[in-house]
Amino acid sequence: MALRIADISEICLDQRAKTDSIHRSVTQLGEITANNKATADEMSDYSKQMKDKIDILAKSVEYFKIDHQLLLKRKQIIDMIELHTNEILQLKNTLIQTAENNEDKEQIADILKSNTILSDNEDTSEDGFGFFENNNENTSTKMPQTTSGVKIDMTLNK
Predict the structure, then answer these.
(1) What per-residue confidence (pLDDT) applies to 109?
(2) Are residues 110 and 132 located together in one domain of the fold?
(3) Same domain flag for 14 and 52
(4) Do the beta carbons of residue 143 and residue 131 sit within 8 Å?
(5) Do 72 and 139 belong together in one domain?
(6) Total domain count for the chain?
């Protein structure tokens, strides 16, 4: 019987050692879980900070985005300006040639009215031909006015 008591005592000691090992393992798992939770909380905070910084960066980049529709409209406006500038220059040359040939004001007005630059129903001048007086004392010409109200410098120096 003493042998049996010794075997039971040995088995109890072995069981206690294994129970202590299990206890230490469970304690370590609790510590690892707590560390994982702390790391997850830190990552969550960093993630929120990163999202805030990304939002700020996105707003900053938005300032530099190109609106292709707006670019297309700008190009169309520039093309229209170039077209009308060429028409105005052609008209100016025609008027200069007419003025150099000493042709009368009515003929010049007819040339202006035949171009699309002046509107038929828009007449803001005293003489009724779409001209306004040039008050420069070194010149003796009148200048046509476009439908948009832009004055075209048709000055011929004396």
Answers:
(1) 67
(2) yes
(3) yes
(4) yes
(5) yes
(6) 2
**pLDDT, tens digit, for every residue of 117-129?**
444 444 444 444 4
60 and 77 share one domain: no
Question: C-alpha distances in angstroms, 132 versus 88, 100, 118, 136, 151?
Answer: 16, 19, 13, 12, 9
pLDDT at position 135 over 90 = no
94 shares its domain with 107? yes
Number of H helices, E strands in the chain: 3, 2
CA distance 94 to 152: 13
Residue type, 4: R
Domain enclosing residue 61, as ranges? 1-65
Q: Which residue has the higher pLDDT, 132 or 36?
A: 36
User: CA-to-CA distance for 95 and 111, rounded, in angstroms?
Assistant: 8
For residues 7-21, average pLDDT: 93
Q: Say if CB 120 and CB 128 are below 8 A apart.
A: no
- Grade residue 103 by pLDDT with cuts at 50, 70 and 90: low
Q: Quick one: tokens of 152?
A: 């075209």
Compute the half-sphere exposure of residue 100: CA atoms within 13 Å on the CB side of its CA.
Answer: 8
Task: Please report whether residue 155 resides in a domain.
Answer: no
